[in-house]
Amino acid sequence: MKRYSLFSLAANALRGQDDWPPAWRNPAPQGRYDAVIIGAGGHGLATAYYLAKLHGMRDVAVLEKGWLGGGNTARNTTIVRSNYHLDANAHFYEFSMKLWEGLSQELNFNVMYSPRGVLNLVHTPADIEAAMRRGNAMRLNGIDAKFLSRDEISAWIPNLDCSPDARFPILGGLLQPRGGTVRHDAVAWGYARAADALGVDIIQQCEVTGIRIDNGAIAGVRTTRGDIDTPRIGIAVAGNSSRVAAMAGIRLPIESHVLQAMVSEPLKPVLDTVVTSGAVHFYVSQSDKGELVMGGDLDFYNSYAQRGNLPKIEEVVAACTALFPSFGRLRLMRTWGGIMDMTMDGSPIIAKLPVRGLYMTGGWCYGGFKATPASGYVHAWTIARDEPHPLNAPFMLERFAAGRLLDEKGAGPYPWAH
Amino acid sequence: MMLIPCPWCGPRNQIEFTYGGDATVTRPAPDAPEAAWVDYVYLRDNPSGPHDELWYHGAGCRSWFAVRRDTRTHAILGSRPMDRPLKDGAVVNGARAPKGSA
Lengths: 418, 102
Fold this sequence. Notes:
The structure holds two protein chains of two kinds. By secondary structure, chain A is of the alpha/beta class. Chain A has helices at about 5-15, 40-55, 85-105, 125-140, 150-155, 185-195, 240-245, 310-325, 370-385, 400, and strands at about 35-40, 60-65, 80, 120, 145-150, 170-175, 180, 200-205, 210-215, 215-225, 225-230, 235, 255-265, 275, 280-285, 290-300, 330-345, 350, 360. The mean pLDDT of chain A is about 95. Chain B has one domain: Folate-binding superfamily (Folate-binding fold), CATH 3.30.2270.10.
């Protein structure tokens, strides 16, 4: 791997930028690997990177049916945060935040982590109490949290409608200052380049069509590019976890749902933080290209279509123009959809599955992107040691039958309600 | 935009409806083993393709009914009242035939 540095950038600038080697190889699959990771999105690539870096497992392949980083890694709204209430979620996502903070240096790849803050608006007195409670829980877990008054928010974000007669009156907000955004594509590229440099084979255009099991243990995978023997498989295909787990005869407590996001036309800097509202389920930030990146609720029906319908777009835009009246003059430039693994309690599954040598990280609901580094870290740990890391032990598959649910919202076993 | 065929009201805009999830799960007997209850409450086939699912026509006749819909394309393959079997590709009308007719 050619390291990126001020010197290498300057040297290549003088030579017309034609001296860069490819950032990763494009190898053909071998007949056998010590471990196979299914899915070359952020989670799968991070898993392979930490397997090679921290556990000495370099004979690893990452199989990808399309191109790397082309699924949900490219479709999210790039927000990172750890503002969770339940201990297991708070500890896990805070570990992820700490990895984000050092990730550009770790990977020698600029992932453009921008700690611009994530602000959750509150609109009712009950909202205030819930936000205070969550903020206090976060601080007890060592996570930064600050309650802002309406006047503080109004002074900071002048285009937000903080007037008392607003459609959704703003009474304050809970801010996580270290939350923010990360360039999502760079996360996949950075992990791919660093994993490749450690000897990991990233094999694109190679779809897994079956999982081979011998005497209750993983024996290999069938793919569109031939069979591959391996004793360990890590599934990192959120959105399609049910389909891949079904290849091993496992049913999951997951439904696949479509979540849409959209961007406006680009404009000069108008918003230097991430603003969210749980009451209207809306979130917006401004990308470095100037687009306002917006999202809202699921479409609320099972889907694998990677596209949604217009009523949800209308809801997101209605919430946007109610909170930020001046944004009503913008035009939407693009909308798209991604498929979410919605679990029965709203929390992920990072676990050993009931076939020896089979592991998964998935069930990410709305929140997979921000978890990417920690998900890869603990998934790699679980694969290498055949036991969960303390941070993902609560995210076991057995928690549903055991009644140890991690239902942050208290919504019950209705996957689309989380 | 999905046009959902209500067995009683005919095709209507999706915004009139609320989703109710997988229509194939059935409630076990009260004395069924715990595994059957775990299966009923938590586990789903989550198919990529035709999916039988519940919808509620909240802004219309306020009835629950079942729809078969392809989760890969959102194409609706049929719908039926809760107590009638689905005929593939058909909307089974909920209205009973008037007395005396064939």
